[in-house]
Amino acid sequence: MIQKRKRGKIINEINITPLTDLMMVLLVIFMVTTPMILQGGIRISLPQAKAVTDETLQKTIIVGVSSSGRTYLNSTEVADPEMLSQKLKNMLAASSEKTVIIEGDKAAFHGRIVEVMSIAKAAGAEKLSISTVPFDEKKDK
Description:
Layout: H1 17-39, E1 48-49, E2 61-65, E3 71-73, E4 76-77, H2 81-94, E5 99-104, H3 110-123, E6 127-130, E7 133-134, H4 137-140
Parallel strand pairs: 1-7, 2-5, 5-6
Antiparallel strand pairs: 2-3, 3-4
Helix pairs in contact: 2-3
């Protein structure tokens, strides 16, 4: 007698396990790279401080000073102090928030940072903030 071959049951469901794995990997990649994107491409090693305010979350106009003394305005290098002053005046005039955040490398000369603060104040900044990273007491001990 000839036996009929039984067909396997047709699976009509989508296996979402590989899709879930892929989404988790992408989520981890974005979580790791987002702080680097927000900080920008400038290598500035910020000093530590115990009192860090939430004001740094409202970054609108950021002036960075690298350890070599180069000045950056919102991640764009500005070589001339006159050009920095003019660009700051234009940005402050267009912004309702008159705060300038200074990200000075901890190895940058104090005089250069004071010069940038003076330029920002003369350009019309009402408030100056210095960006820091939170102080880690466990790391220092």
